[in-house]
Design goal:
heterodimer; B: alpha+beta; five-stranded mixed sheet; 12 helices; 13 strands; rod-shaped
């Protein structure tokens, strides 16, 4: 066994050779063993042969849309996927996230941010509630006792507010779309009711954020959803 | 109402006078014929005896019945013949008394047969006339339909329609199509015109429109010596067909049916051309939309990919240089220059692409419910690097409700205003941002800076493309504010600029939004 085999494996699926080269260098520098694929078919094959720990996926591929790659991949794999695309439309982001992408980053991007996002989505698989206690900054959630503390003070939350907070904490570092949040907290019939989500989110922020107008714990991704920020 | 008088009442008054003249003429003809036959029979009365003469009269009546004469004329001929036979030939001659029973039988039989023959033959002829009329109408309609089908354009079809109508009805004809606003539109044609027609289209059209109750068709009407027929479909009046009736006299009832059929055909033709034109317009728009989107996506991809490579490479290089402590002389500064230049280039490319999309109308609004503080937060995040070192003071009513608007557009506009304010403000200067609702229907966002303010008269020009203020800091192409204006126009709002009372400039965004207040206890 050489030291290479201990390193996490990353797969880059992108048709632009310069972007691929750059990502490969950046990922190698971050300690990954990185492989590349230049189209969707090749990418899906590489997932089978290389067993990557994380995938960086472009949306505009020559042979099929990146969303199609995602759809096919999610039929049999839960490997974390970060979508890296030129497309800035909120609709594209929401679609990719709803299809099972773990995060979304637009080009141009900062390699350091990419690395941080990859770390984040690798560390926590979605809905991971393995830990009985969650801590981020001044926030502390005791899942077993259903207790929330901010800066050492007990905070009383309603059942809905607690459910919202729990879902976001269990997906810390990744975007949770409005649809997903509504489904998990209110049930499948509530999927279109994002205005209620906003109201509850405002209430929640008033309880846990030091300055609700400049949130430090839960960031809004406009038109997409919310993200619990990773503790520094 | 005078103008709403149905066409066929004028038809009867017109034709009654002409009918009386024709009846007198017919009467003269049949009486002349009876007189001539009487004279002839007088000469042969000694050879034939008087009974066969009744048969000769009967033959005359039968002959007259086959001629294009009215039933009344035939009856008149029968009466005149009977009386003449009785008076001149039946003994006693020159007296109307009938002496013998046999003569009376012949006399009565003669009358019965004569009237019967007259009745039968005129009915037969009437049938024939109707058939011929129908054939004539069918032929006219067929010619019209054929001509309409052969026409390549609506203008050609209209020209043909007016010619055919003028020929069929023997009068002037004019067709005018109503434009989208209800006024006479671009399509018009006339045939058989002597001089310029003095037709009051507008008032005729308006009268027809007013007369047409919802769900019913407007009836033809006579005005100024013209018969006006609406060209209508089930939904609306497409135009007007006018026939001159002051010279030729009003139309006969069967002609009215025919002219209505003409109007229906012409209306159907006009509607068909309308639909074809609409369909091809839609198709063309879709096609150009698709091509444009492809080109724009392609250009966007081709410009942004190398920029992304450049930026990411500079970032990585910067990170790689970190541990060396800038071993290479000036290397870190050089990388910093590359990073600054590439992010500046990125902003310019973004501005140009946004401007192109907005100019060409290639965008789709996607209004969603959102909170104004969210929009402000993400706009600030977008230009966080430019705002570094500036103090942004936000003022917003505490009970600001959710609004429904395309948040991406508002966010972009606000980010551009903040970037603009940061560029013109001295370092560390305060930028204030105020948000509020007006009339519960308009969202107003106001950004004020402490910069030099706007030169006099530049409150409009600052929004022009590539306009750069005299105090503009280097680095920028003057697109930011024109993009803001484009975004606001797309949202149905506006952006205005003014100098603040103290110092600096104030930019005000105002856009219509839907507002929803949800009870706090929800």
């Amino acid at each position: 066994m050489n030291s290479q085999s201990q390193r996490p494996i990353a797969l880059v699926v992108d048709d632009e050779v310069q972007i691929r080269r750059l990502l490969l260098m950046a990922l190698e520098a971050e300690g990954y063993t990185a492989y590349e694929a230049s189209n969707g078919e090749e990418g899906l094959r590489a997932v089978v042969f290389r067993h990557p720990d994380v995938i960086v996926l472009d949306l505009g591929l020559p042979d099929m849309e990146g969303t199609e790659v995602l759809r096919r991949l999610r039929e049999w794999s839960t490997v974390p996927v970060l979508v890296l695309s030129i497309r800035q439309d909120v609709a594209d982001k929401v679609q990719a996230l709803d299809l099972g992408a773990d995060d979304y980053l637009t080009k141009p991007f900062h390699p350091a941010e990419l690395a941080a996002r990859l770390r984040s989505i690798r560390r926590h698989s979605p809905g991971d509630s393995g830990l009985p206690v969650f801590e981020a900054g001044s926030l502390r959630i005791d899942f077993a006792a259903r207790k929330v503390m901010v800066a050492g003070q007990d905070v009383r939350l309603t059942a809905t507010e607690y459910a919202l907070l729990r879902v976001l904490a269990q997906n810390v570092g990744r975007v949770v779309t409005h649809r997903h949040l509504l489904r998990l907290v209110w049930g499948p019939t509530a999927e279109g009711q994002s205005q209620y989500l906003r109201v509850y989110m405002n209430h929640l922020r008033k309880r846990i954020e030091a300055d609700p107008s400049q949130p430090k714990l839960i960031r809004t991704e406009p038109g997409i959803g919310y993200r619990m920020l990773e503790p520094e | 109402m005078e103008t709403e008088r149905p066409a066929d009442t004028t038809v009867t008054t017109g034709s009654r006078r002409a009918g009386r003249r024709a009846a007198c003429m017919e009467l003269a003809i049949v009486l002349g014929a009876v007189a001539a036959v009487t004279g002839l029979c007088w000469l042969m009365r000694d050879i034939t005896g008087y009974w066969p003469i009744a048969w000769i009269y009967l033959a005359l009546i039968s002959f007259l019945a086959t001629q294009p004469l009215g039933y009344a004329a035939i009856v008149a001929a029968a009466v005149a013949g009977g009386l003449a036979w009785n008076f001149f030939f039946v003994p006693p001659v020159f007296g109307i008394r009938i002496k013998h029973f046999q003569d009376a039988v012949v006399f009565v039989t003669y009358f019965a047969v004569a009237v019967l023959i007259g009745r039968l033959t005129t009915r037969l002829r009437q049938r024939e006339l109707e058939v011929r009329n129908r054939e004539h109408q069918t032929a006219a309609l067929y010619r019209l339909a054929q001509g309409l089908a052969d026409s390549a354009s609506v203008e050609e079809a209209l020209a043909h329609a007016t010619q055919e109508t003028a020929r069929t009805f023997g009068t002037d004809c004019h067709v005018v199509l109503a434009g989208a606003d209800g006024r006479p539109g671009p399509g018009a044609a006339s045939a058989g015109m002597r001089g310029q027609p003095a037709i009051r289209w507008q008032s005729a059209l308006e009268t027809l429109r007013a007369a047409a109750r919802p769900g019913t068709c407007a009836a033809p009407m006579t005005m100024d010596g013209w018969l006006h027929l609406p060209l209508h479909t089930a939904r609306r009046i497409l135009g007007l067909m006018s026939l001159r009736t002051d010279e030729r006299g009003a139309l006969a009832p069967e002609e009215c049916d025919l002219v209505n059929a003409f109007a229906d055909r012409i209306a159907a033709m006009v509607e068909r051309y309308d639909l074809i034109a609409g369909a091809s317009r839609t198709k063309l728009a879709e096609e150009s939309e698709r091509v444009y989107k492809t080109v724009l996506d392609c250009v966007s991809h081709e410009l942004k990919t190398p920029l992304a490579v450049l930026q990411a490479a500079a970032d990585s290089l910067s990170a790689a240089l970190e541990p060396t402590g800038g071993a290479m002389h000036g290397a870190r500064e050089l990388v910093g220059e590359i990073q600054t230049a590439s992010s500046r280039l990125g902003r310019i490319v973004d501005g140009l692409l946004s401007m192109t999309r907005l100019d060409a109308g290639r965008y789709r609004l996607d209004p969603v419910w959102c909170d104004v503080d969210e929009i402000i937060a993400s706009a600030r995040l977008q230009v966080a690097d430019l705002l570094a070192g500036h103090d942004v003071a936000i003022k917003m009513p505490p009970d600001m409700p959710s609004v429904r608007v395309d948040s991406g557009f508002v966010e972009q506009a606000l980010a551009n205003l903040l970037a603009n304010a940061a560029a013109y403000s001295p370092p560390e200067a305060r930028i204030s941002l105020e948000a509020g609702l007006v009339d519960e229907a308009f969202l107003v966002l106001q950004v004020s800076d402490c910069g030099p303010g706007l030169p006099d008269g530049d409150t409009e020009r600052v929004f022009e493309k590539f306009y750069r203020g005299p105090m503009a800091p280097p680095g920028g192409v003057g697109l930011g504010l024109s993009v803001v204006r484009g975004l606001m126009h797309a949202l149905g709002g506006e952006v205005t600029a003014q100098n603040s009372h103290g110092q600096g400039a104030t930019f005000i965004l105002r856009m219509p939004v839907e507002v929803r207040r949800i009870p706090e206890s929800a």
